[in-house]
Amino acid sequence: MAKDGWYPISERYEPGTWGCLAFTVALLLCFILVGILIFFYLIIVKPRGTLYVTYEARAVSHISVDTQPGRGEKICPDCAETIKEKAKVCRYCGYRFN
Asked: What does 32-86 look like in DSSP terms, one character per residue?
């Protein structure tokens, strides 16, 4: 066109639009195809489970050491192992006796 003497003096851009029918078809295909993919996903992938834990409040009591007379042994309150009565530290778990 420049050969014929035509030169551009301004520019304007107008985006194209889809018709209502194209939008409706795309929307239906989207629901159908995505719905099928989501359906297969729901069949294959299982959701995470929920762990419910119930707690009970109890009064704090002093730990007592059980002794077994005649044998010279006592039971550790932490690990429940039998140790010598004169031991100050449990050899299994490291619990310190008073």
From this structure: HHHHHHHHHHHHHSPPPP------------PPPPEEETTTTEEE-TTT--EEETT
